[in-house]
């Protein structure tokens, strides 16, 4: 009898312990419903209908923990095709849920649904989701906040509150019309009318006084700002009047904390910063504006603002203080030196040291002669395009993943070159027009499973030298070096940081400069790499990696889910 009770007691104890364990550290599965629908929004004195998720703009945030799973049920109630991408989430072995249209899936058609499974692994901090078809991501986007596992802590002082700061870009006209127009006429797209902070332009724009994001702070408290650049076409500078920020994470990975009075953030990039409310109680502007390295190219030179307001009894200054440290629009040095300050928190990192796949990619803006019986409005009456290694990406009719998985021929070729077809002085400001015309094709680069990959990204001055924020799907990469001018194979590797380089998924290659990244290709599947400046992307600054299956257990791509949207 006594023995029986004992056994029961042990069993009960076991159950209690495993339940507690389940509560504390077992990964959870979260379910979300995303209904894609049109909704009217008024900004800058004009109303238009925008594409949203659940009628919200910016879209709903996902709050999950490291290692959790999220199941997203997407229903397209709008009248255009759409896909959703989980930017920065690696999707181990599961490219089927990655989202880029015609790369890993065909679009979800109006009236149709698709369920995507987001399995987190080591990602931590701030990420986001956005539409990945046409230009829908202008309004179809939201934040993904990944908290530490329960029982785990942030490696920095606890913040009193966490504040999402989504930087955005707004056109008064319909974004889809902007896209259609420049695709037809070959010219640069119309520049936007405003930038936004959490969907609000701020009071420097006409009739936007009430459309200003306000953050109320308490003196002496610390706030964790999760800053995300969702803008379509611009890298942004962001600064807060009189306050320093301490950067603690970028792109879903911790960094060594460092103080700064401004940040430079690429479309696609995220930065987590600590803000200490340690100034004289008053109201202060936070402000963001474009970093635009080539004045020849037209851009939106406006400034979005939000207000930080201290609680308390005081007479505020007549208007909020404006950040003096916001760099001027073409300050390349400010952008590159900020990015160069990013370092991984832990040392040493697992950056690949023995490289077996060395690649050299050039990023160019191009021109193509106008079609017969057509007028083009690009420079020299031609059509603007963009390329990687002189190949301007052509979107296929059937997604590459499906073609790869089912062995369908004729959708893509695997001839993407390891280096550009022609070597020339890439950053010369006097290049012959013969270099302007790219090839066009749907080319992929096949990578062996577990290969150690190094890519030198080289910006060129073909047609127009600009910064290019390059984003890789399915992997994070270490940014081990960067510089201005042509990459020097002998000299530049000597300055590589192999000790604590930052782990990123989007990195701005400086105007007329280069950036070197390294990663291990350990995620079998089909993964897009592209410039996150949307107009460059539309012009073809994209390419695709296919990472082959490994031989071992758990080293193969998962089978497709049953409900993939048909082409
Ligand atoms: Cu942020 Cu290919 O995406
Ligand atoms: Cu670009």
From TrEMBL:
Domain Plastocyanin-like, first and last residues per copy: 36-150, 162-312, 416-550
Cellular localization per UniProt: Secreted, Extracellular space, Apoplast
Major site of localization recorded for this protein: secreted
Source taxon at top rank: Eukaryota
Catalytic activity: 4 hydroquinone + O2 = 4 benzosemiquinone + 2 H2O
Free-text cofactor note: Binds 4 Cu cations per monomer.
Gene Ontology CC: apoplast
Entry EC number(s): 1.10.3.2
Family: Belongs to the multicopper oxidase family.
Protein name, per record: Laccase
